[in-house]
Amino acid sequence: MTVSRMSTLFLRTLREDPADAELPGHKLLVRAGYVRRAAPGVYSWLPLGLRVLRKVEGIVREEMDAIGAQELAFPALLPREPYEATGRWTDYGDNLFRLVDRKGADMLLGPTHEEMFTLAVKDLYSSYKDLPLSLYQIQTKYRDEARPRAGLLRGREFVMKDSYSFDVDDAGLEAAYQRHREAYIRIFDKLGFDYVIVKATSGAMGGSASEEFLAVSPDGEDTFVRCEESGYAANVEAVVVPQAGPVPADVVAATPAACEVETPDTPTIDTLVAVLNEKRPRTDGRAWTAHDTLKNVVVALVHPDGHRELLAIGLPGDRQVDMKRLEAQVAPAEIDDATDADFARHPELVRGYIGPAALGLRGEGEEQTGVRYLLDPSIAEGSAWATGANKPGFHVVDLVHGRDFIADGTVQAAEVRDGDPSPDGKGVLRAARGIEMGHIFQLGRKYAEALGLKVLDENGKLVTVTMGSYGIGVSRAVAAIAESNHDDAGLIWPRNVSPADVHVVATGKDAAIFDAAAGMAESLSGEGIDVIYDDRPKVSPGVKFKDAEIIGVPTIVVVGRGLADGVVEIKDRRSGERREVRVDAVVAEVLAEVREH
Amino acid sequence: MTVSRMSTLFLRTLREDPADAELPGHKLLVRAGYVRRAAPGVYSWLPLGLRVLRKVEGIVREEMDAIGAQELAFPALLPREPYEATGRWTDYGDNLFRLVDRKGADMLLGPTHEEMFTLAVKDLYSSYKDLPLSLYQIQTKYRDEARPRAGLLRGREFVMKDSYSFDVDDAGLEAAYQRHREAYIRIFDKLGFDYVIVKATSGAMGGSASEEFLAVSPDGEDTFVRCEESGYAANVEAVVVPQAGPVPADVVAATPAACEVETPDTPTIDTLVAVLNEKRPRTDGRAWTAHDTLKNVVVALVHPDGHRELLAIGLPGDRQVDMKRLEAQVAPAEIDDATDADFARHPELVRGYIGPAALGLRGEGEEQTGVRYLLDPSIAEGSAWATGANKPGFHVVDLVHGRDFIADGTVQAAEVRDGDPSPDGKGVLRAARGIEMGHIFQLGRKYAEALGLKVLDENGKLVTVTMGSYGIGVSRAVAAIAESNHDDAGLIWPRNVSPADVHVVATGKDAAIFDAAAGMAESLSGEGIDVIYDDRPKVSPGVKFKDAEIIGVPTIVVVGRGLADGVVEIKDRRSGERREVRVDAVVAEVLAEVREH
């Protein structure tokens, strides 16, 4: 293997945090000379960064090969037609990089390759005997993210492993899904960060069963919940809150008729609750709380074809709408704030006082021109609410769902909170944040149908193939590893993915020291391990130590004054533990450390 | 290493040539299941193709590492600004894939990465002590070729190794250039096709000394010439024909005055020569030949900024203008046919009878509104010509260069022909065709100046860095190897790049045969070599043999009826030689064959 000499290695460590970095791991990747930003969300890989990337690729490749998946490589520059056939040319919206070639043909930069894999199998295969089949690629992908952030975690150009399984029936798909799931567990066990497997939604991809592998991180963009009691775990986007059971009939019968209350100056739920407690105390003796109010939130849905529609969501006043959860429900439409112009088109919506009576597409014989109205599943049939009266300065109390108002359906859009009951009824949810590192799901027949991928079954009948789709963010994994493996002094690479196995530092000016250190570096390299050797003649020991710490190779060997007494120091970067070792034992000691792993 | 079973390998061989393939090697790459076209000039790599591509990458990487070049990876999606600073945003013309991101920022897909490498070095380095430096990447590049053709040979998405050297002075650049040249020789020696190293032009890249590595192939797009006597070799675009010496003064003095001749119905040089020989025989007793006529060819130059200009080229009537040679001279402008509209703007040009008198920017005090006029260097000062008289039906004879007309300069645009004298005066040129596989050149300071890459020299003075640029077409190399290594039955991979070391074929229906063949495949794989094993139970021996031939692995082992007698057959794919080998010796024999290489 190689010896990389610091005197020539294309690397400069930075003392200052880069302006474009937010997360601690990403700051260190830039400061330690692993990556540099080329454009928003677009990164260059410097020599050490590229080595880590390749090691992650190698781990992923090994496990994909082990489950019999076959590697190939599709282009990133793709024709429009297949993506038109599946609807994704439009559904991907602004996230798709589109371009026009010199002949005027529409092309795109592939965000994922379902279409290309489906067409390749259609091209080559025709019989159930050809299946099952799993194919994969490790390839550069493109998505024009609205808010590229957090360095490599959400880039616009990124490396991804995507694989696809092809089966004749659902049992085959289930088996392929499980094989991938197990391979992913082996991969993520090797990568060196904590992760959880959670239920997921499938977003714009279509399909059914779906799980995500999330790296647990307070800086993650995803929120997930886990129930210790039952083992339930899900991305909050995928949590399905059960529908609250109906209120008993006698309770409903005892609820007074709905009644308007003058509520001036109640711009917030809190002020509304205060006014109600003062002017219209509850008949049951409890005080009004935010949870007794029904908040109606209006947003705009922007459909891929550009059509804009308002949507009202009714939920208890003590909950917020979780826009990411809502987006997962309405995809491929996107969510936008409702604007003054939107409200102008709907004069029935009295801002600050919107109530159910003005909402919903239903109507009694009238045209359905209202705003679609969806309720949170916690709003039980028969429950009574304080809510807007659709006129300025007025709310209404004792408005009963099913008696005084109905909605067009329910929606899973309210925030899910730490401490909420688990949807399986078996305990309490705990919330944490994570970074999506892998996603596996049973895509089903959506793409095969759109692109006509059929094979002859045992009876000579054409059947549509069912597919699974499985992704790992390879460049993102480098970032996740960095976020999970660092301290104040720098990065601390897990041995599996470290850019080198050992970092040899020669200190002082004594030629004997440099000779001995160079000899060790060569001996170690001759044993098949990668070495960084700090041979810089005029750099102080302090700077060399700092550089070794920030670069983060797991084993550091310091050759210095001790050499005169026949000893060198071996330092463990993670534990900080140092020990002195006889010069003639150092190669064996380091090899043992590298190989024990 | 792996055993790839034909029963599951994602591969189907085709009997028919694909409609989109022109060249024999490319047809075979498609028919044997190595690549598939995804869009014009854009290819997908199927499993076996990807293996060959990776092996070529490995050979290139090994030799680049050996000369101390350091690998990194730049993005393909790049911001406009650096390419604007060097002028290439415009100069690349329609060959550049441009796109606009969701925020309206101009971006491009990198055709080569001079700008990015230059900026990276500027970012990290600041002193002469940091140099010399060589960096490289093996990366996917994009060019929107006007005529993507010949499969992988000229793709719009392709894999390239590009490297760059950085030095403080010309001697350093020269040394870096030589190191790359030697590495390239080692690489191309390993790749398995005949190649030549020829002088080259640097095209739109700027720079000076420049050589190309061409794979010799009758299907190549490039024409090169070689002089056996002197060793001179050049791409025809780079041939510099010496300026012909002046005609002796006494000869010029003896040339009669120019004289118009009525030459109706002379649409071609041949008809003109015939008419002249009939109506106006030469005074020196020789017959008129095409070589005595001065042909004036008018083309349109389209500059990167869209400006369109006419250009007239004067050359002997027995030569054609070589448009590629001309393009190399006028780059970054492109050549277009002169249109009726172009001629309409220049009424002085009488089509079919254009002569020097109507050409040239010069004028006597008048405005310079003429068409720029450049002469072939074979047009000697003092030589006399038959040429157009600028009026319909008339030519002029005895028009003497320097006496009766002058031009605006010379141009290296005439075709170079087999048998032409070598420009070094030492023999005769022989012409052949080739495929550009590598290009090395001394770029100089163009990019460093445009982007401000300076370092402090030994005296603390800022000096501009000088650069070299070196490219190898990696995916193109796969195609060139295929073009050079095949027969009627299929591909014949050199062992270095073969997708597998050995192809084991089990024939018949006997379980013992399949067991023995599977055992051999496993044993060989256990010895560290890659095996394709044809285990398909219901496929005839004939089809299996045909598949093995077209796939082209260098060693084929056939396990069949001979097994009963304890023998199997080893076939050399290239020579066709077969021999019987004892079953218990086959693994050792195959290993010897693989390793002797």
UniProtKB/TrEMBL annotation, chains A, B:
Keywords: Aminoacyl-tRNA synthetase, ATP-binding, Cytoplasm, Ligase, Nucleotide-binding, Protein biosynthesis. It comes from the Bacteria. It is an enzyme of class 6 (ligase). PROSITE patterns: AA_TRNA_LIGASE_II. Homodimer. Residues 36-494 form the Aminoacyl-transfer RNA synthetases class-II family profile domain. InterPro entries: aa-tRNA-synt_IIb, aa-tRNA-synth_II, aa-tRNA-synth_II/BPL/LPL, Anticodon-bd, Anticodon-bd_dom_sf, Pro-tRNA-ligase_IIa, Pro-tRNA-synth_IIa_bac-type, Pro-tRNA-Synthase_IIa_type1. NCBIfam families: PRK09194.1 (NF006625), proS_fam_II (TIGR00409). Belongs to the class-II aminoacyl-tRNA synthetase family. ProS type 1 subfamily. The keyword Cytoplasm applies. GO terms for biological process: prolyl-tRNA aminoacylation. The keyword Nucleotidyltransferase does not apply. Consists of three domains: the N-terminal catalytic domain, the editing domain and the C-terminal anticodon-binding domain. SUPFAM superfamilies: Class II aaRS ABD-related, Class II aaRS and biotin synthetases, YbaK/ProRS associated domain. One of its GO terms (molecular function) is proline-tRNA ligase activity. The gene is proS. GO terms for cellular component: cytosol. It is found in: Cytoplasm. Its EC number is 6.1.1.15. It catalyses: tRNA(Pro) + L-proline + ATP = L-prolyl-tRNA(Pro) + AMP + diphosphate. This is Proline--tRNA ligase. Catalyzes the attachment of proline to tRNA(Pro) in a two-step reaction: proline is first activated by ATP to form Pro-AMP and then transferred to the acceptor end of tRNA(Pro). As ProRS can inadvertently accommodate and process non-cognate amino acids such as alanine and cysteine, to avoid such errors it has two additional distinct editing activities against alanine. One activity is designated as 'pretransfer' editing and involves the tRNA(Pro)-independent hydrolysis of activated Ala-AMP.
